[in-house]
């Protein structure tokens, strides 16, 4: 059996697992706030938390095998006026990670390529590698059997609007291929996020499948927007009902538990939570960047204004590592760009409310 090697990756087995942020908090006596994850600064919504807690009393029963009523409630959230005609293309999963792996296992074998950005969320590459795809580099001119683009891109903060996204798909995917577009962070866009989302492009997705046999899947991890990473909750909008049924056939039963389903069914109705998210996230993000620019005028900050994190190039591997170490020591961990992304001069920090940011900035005064 392989021997675990977690020398630099904390609880992650560096030989077998893909590194993620979000683990340090459990090992801190002085924990204040987790800046290493891209979750919502407002924390878990109270209404959904109450529903999740109440659902524990039903946990001696199996979850509903059809994922209802949570699945239909999410469909109404995605397509308020069209959910009845579109909801049968939607399926829930145990986090987006389960669904990423299931879709890539189903995909036509051959080549895989990432989105056009310098780096991106690594679960797609991990699954492609484990399923023996040939991995093409980001700058390859070749079209691939499977292409995966994270939009907005975590961690770089790049974002393609729909016309550019469609052009990228046409230029990078072979006929008969699969496309996985991860829109987990896209609902932060604004109250008009739906009209900017690929989930709204029903005719385009049908045309790509009917004319080119290109299957487009839109992936969501809902644990970031609604700050519930411990619950594991994701979804995929499939190109056709048949694709959804193919996933359902191989998905293990009851992969989304009672608590997560109750949380989802309640949280999609919390409009107040979303309004304050859209209002305050760009304000706090800009405030944080302004403060950091004054402290570190040589740092470069990346990402669209609406995003829940800031991607920072400190210009120095040594500076970035010291920033990570100081933040950890102060109980406000940030995400290093070294593990997984292989960008050691970068750090990623979440958007948080000002009093928490002040703790981080105090920790970095000695940089």
Automatic annotation (TrEMBL):
The keyword Transmembrane helix does not apply. Residues 35-362 form the Aminotransferase class I/classII large domain. Keywords: Transferase. Signal peptide: none annotated. InterPro entries: Aminotransferase_I/II_large, PyrdxlP-dep_Trfase, PyrdxlP-dep_Trfase_major, PyrdxlP-dep_Trfase_small. It holds the Pfam family Aminotran_1_2. GO terms for molecular function: pyridoxal phosphate binding; transferase activity. It comes from the Eukaryota. This is PLP-dependent transferase. It comes from Coemansia reversa (strain ATCC 12441 / NRRL 1564).
């Amino acid at each position: 059996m392989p021997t675990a090697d977690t020398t630099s990756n904390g609880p992650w087995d560096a030989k077998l697992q893909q590194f993620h942020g979000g683990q340090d908090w459990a090992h801190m006596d002085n924990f204040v706030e987790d800046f290493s994850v891209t979750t919502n600064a407002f924390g878990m919504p109270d209404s959904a938390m109450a529903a999740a807690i109440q659902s524990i009393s039903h946990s001696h029963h199996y979850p509903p095998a059809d994922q209802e009523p949570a699945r239909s409630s999410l469909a109404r959230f995605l397509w308020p006026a069209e959910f009845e005609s579109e909801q049968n293309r939607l399926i829930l999963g145990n986090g987006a990670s389960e669904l990423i792996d299931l879709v890539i296992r189903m995909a036509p074998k051959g080549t895989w390529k990432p989105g056009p950005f310098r780096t991106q969320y690594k679960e797609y590459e991990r699954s492609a590698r484990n399923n023996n795809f040939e991995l093409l580099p980001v700058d390859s001119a070749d079209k691939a059997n499977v292409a995966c683009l994270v939009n907005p891109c975590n961690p770089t903060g790049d974002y393609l609007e729909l016309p550019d996204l469609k052009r990228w798909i046409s230029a990078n995917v072979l006929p008969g291929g699969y496309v996985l577009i991860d829109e987990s962070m896209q609902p932060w866009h604004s109250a008009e996020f739906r009209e900017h989302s690929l989930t709204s492009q029903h005719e385009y997705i049908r045309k790509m499948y009917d004319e080119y046999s290109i299957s487009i899947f839109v992936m969501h991890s809902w644990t970031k927007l609604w700050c519930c990473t411990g619950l594991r909750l994701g979804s995929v909008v499939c190109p056709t009902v048949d694709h959804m049924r193919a996933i359902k056939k191989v998905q293990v039963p009851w992969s989304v538990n009672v608590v997560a389903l109750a949380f989802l069914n309640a949280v999609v109705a919390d409009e107040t939570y979303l309004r304050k998210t859209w209002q305050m996230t760009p304000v706090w993000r800009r405030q944080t960047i302004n403060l950091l620019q004054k402290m570190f005028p040589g740092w470069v900050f990346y990402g669209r204004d609406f995003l829940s994190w800031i991607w920072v190039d400190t210009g120095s591997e040594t500076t970035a590592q010291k920033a990570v170490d100081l933040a950890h020591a102060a109980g406000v961990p940030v995400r290093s760009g070294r593990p997984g992304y292989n960008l050691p001069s970068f750090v990623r920090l979440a958007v948080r409310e000002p009093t928490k940011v002040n703790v981080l900035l105090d920790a970095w005064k000695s940089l």
